[in-house]
Amino acid sequence: MRTLIDESQLDDGVSKLAKEIDSNYGGRPITVVAVMTGSLVLFADLIRRLSMPQRVGVIHASSYRGGTQAGKLEIDSKMLIDVQNRDVLLVDDIYDTGATLTKLSAAIAEMGASSVSTAVLLKKLRPKQIGPKPDFVAFEIPDEFVVGYGLDYLDMYRNLPFIGVLEPDEIEATARQ
Ligand SMILES: O=P(O)(O)OC[C@H]1O[C@H](OP(=O)(O)OP(=O)(O)O)[C@H](O)[C@@H]1O
Ligand code: HPA
């Protein structure tokens, strides 16, 4: 596996992301929502660096079941807290095709949120992204399949403390396990 972003770069990137979000909201309370499962490591690090009062919730969205290509997006909001009349910040690990955050933002707006913004650790530089770009981005990365710091391949590698690029032989080996 090739390291793309190491632990210390991640630490700096998350701090910078938190500063940008803080200065944008200027102390106003927000409802910060983790897009599960990929955002769980970023989310834990990010919310502890934000200074405004926060309500904290989670929503589940999944479209990469079983591979490196997006399939049908499934959203499960059973565990989500009330977002009506709240300023919501959706936090996700990666903006790739853009489908997940675009559809989730629309779903949260539909639930009656006053505003919906988005923050991601990674934004892929690739053609054919849909919807508005994320409001807050820590790193722009090349169009390669990455794992670690919450990101998975077949539910593996989320625990790695760095962002790595899986080589084709590792993709095959993981799929065989
Ligand atoms: O911009 P997109 O092309 O929509 O891709 C981004 C989404 O894909 C991943 O989720 P995934 O569906 O793999 O579920 P997971 O979070 O449970 O890993 C990732 O965590 C983002 O939510
Ligand atoms: O590059 C990726 N890695 C892991 N999960 C993802 N979901 C969208 N893109 C990616």
How are the elements arranged and paired?
Layout: E1 2-5, H1 7-25, E2 30-36, H2 40-47, E3 54-62, E4 74-76, E5 87-95, H3 99-110, E6 115-124, E7 136-141, E8 146-147, E9 163-165, H4 168-176
Parallel strand pairs: 2-3, 2-5, 5-6, 6-7
Antiparallel strand pairs: 1-9, 3-4, 8-9
This protein binds 1-O-pyrophosphono-5-O-phosphono-alpha-D-ribofuranose and hypoxanthine (HPA).
Q: How would you characterize the overall build of this protein?
A:
- It is a single chain.
- This protein has a single domain (8-142), classed as Rossmann fold, CATH 3.40.50.2020.
- 27% of the residues lie in helices and 30% in strands.
- It contains four helices and nine strands.
- The chain has helices at 7-25, 40-47, 99-110, 168-176; strands spanning 2-5, 30-36, 54-62, 74-76, 87-95, 115-124, 136-141, 146-147, 163-165.
- The strands form two sheets. It has a six-stranded mixed beta sheet, sandwiched between helices.
- Helix 2 links the parallel strand 2 and strand 3.
- 33% of the residues are buried.
- The protein binds 1-O-pyrophosphono-5-O-phosphono-alpha-D-ribofuranose (PRP) and hypoxanthine.
- Hypoxanthine binds at residues 64, 94, 96, 145-147, 151-152.
- It is found in: Cytoplasm.
- It catalyses: GMP + diphosphate = guanine + 5-phospho-alpha-D-ribose 1-diphosphate; IMP + diphosphate = hypoxanthine + 5-phospho-alpha-D-ribose 1-diphosphate.
